[in-house]
Design a protein that fits this description.
With 318 residues, this protein is an alpha+beta fold. Helices cover 34% and strands 25% of the residues. It has 11 helices and 11 strands. It starts with a helix and ends in a 13-residue tail after the last strand.
């Protein structure tokens, strides 16, 4: 451990956030977005986590932090102990809003540990570790690989296809309140009527085909969902209205982002502002303030950067 610690040179891991599901692609379709978590790793006498910015308020600043826990598990899998480190974290991904903040932290821990271990794990091995941790490959796959990720997890191994992201503008409406994944999961039924399952499954197939072939005109129909949207409506005031009407106000497909409460919509060309106004106004009408962001699907996954310390998430976002 001491020998490895003595060789540590500072580096940064930059990880994109993500959206998941895109409607009926429940737990199986993810897409990277240009919001980022950045982690800087340095040698230290004792391990500590330094959190920068309001988005990380309330997270643990010691070895119980998710990033450090993941790094420890990666080292343990190789029969080593994690050396003492200073782990600095920045993020412009809002927590518990459905934009992949926990998956980005998980990916950062996996990639940082692998960098310290000299590339002991392949990317596929990191993906398998991350999927086992998360329980589904959509967010973690998008954060590790970038682009669009279509995957399946059977409890033992993830099968994943990665593709280029769609060249479409994205508008997200982020409500001011948090929604935990646990609460959003608890709202789901234990089983679905057979016809509903067939309908959403067929739409997920069309969604996959549209994303892979560039048939963007299919997105409004393909992103309609019966797997989770009907059951999470009570948790997101105005959801039913926006799902029903957004395509008439400049959207080219709309869905909850992950478990919500954020709404994500692909925008029709030149309609970004009209769509943004509609989403913001609808949330307001239902008693909730929402922050609007204009984002871009992101092609690149987690990356390691060495050299000068230059954290600037604003330059990475649009």
């Amino acid at each position: 451990m001491c020998n490895r610690a003595s060789k540590i040179e500072p580096f940064e891991v930059v990880v994109p956030g993500s959206t998941a599901n895109l409607g009926p692609g429940f737990d199986s379709i993810g897409m990277a977005l240009n919001v980022f978590t950045t982690v800087r790793v340095e040698r230290a006498h004792t391990t500590r986590v330094v959190l920068h910015g309001d988005n990380l308020t309330g997270l643990p600043a010691d070895e119980t932090n998710l990033i450090v826990q993941v790094m420890q598990k990666c080292f343990a899998a190789r029969g080593e102990a994690l050396p003492s480190l200073a782990v600095h974290v920045w993020s412009d991904i809002p927590m518990t809003r459905g934009l992949g903040s926990s998956a980005a932290a998980l990916a950062a821990g996996l990639v940082a540990a692998n960098e310290l271990l000299g590339g002991a794990f392949s990317m596929d091995e990191l993906l398998q570790l991350g999927t086992a941790w998360e329980g589904h490959p959509d967010n973690i796959g998008a954060s590790l690989l970038g682009g669009v990720v279509i995957g399946s997890w059977d409890g033992r191994r993830a099968a994943v296809v990665q593709a280029d992201p769609p060249p479409l503008p994205v508008v997200v409406a982020i409500p001011e309140y948090e929604l935990s994944t646990t609460e959003a999961r608890d709202a789901l039924p234990g089983e679905l009527p057979f016809r509903e399952a067939i309908l959403s499954s067929s739409r997920a197939n069309v969604l996959t085909a549209a994303l892979l072939t560039g048939r963007w005109g299919l997105l409004p129909a393909a992103m309609q969902d019966t797997f989770h949207h009907p059951y999470r409506g009570r948790l997101v005031p105005g959801l039913a209205d926006m799902l029903a009407a957004a395509n008439r106000h400049g959207a080219q497909g709309i869905a909850l982002s992950g478990a919500g409460p954020t709404l994500l919509a692909f925008a029709q060309s030149g309609e970004e502002e009209r769509l943004a106004h509609y989403l913001e106004e609808t949330f307001t009408r239902h008693g909730t303030r929402a922050h609007i962001r204009h984002l871009t699907p992101w092609a690149q996954g987690a990356t390691v950067q060495r050299g000068s310390h230059a954290i600037d998430t604003e330059k990475r976002t649009v």
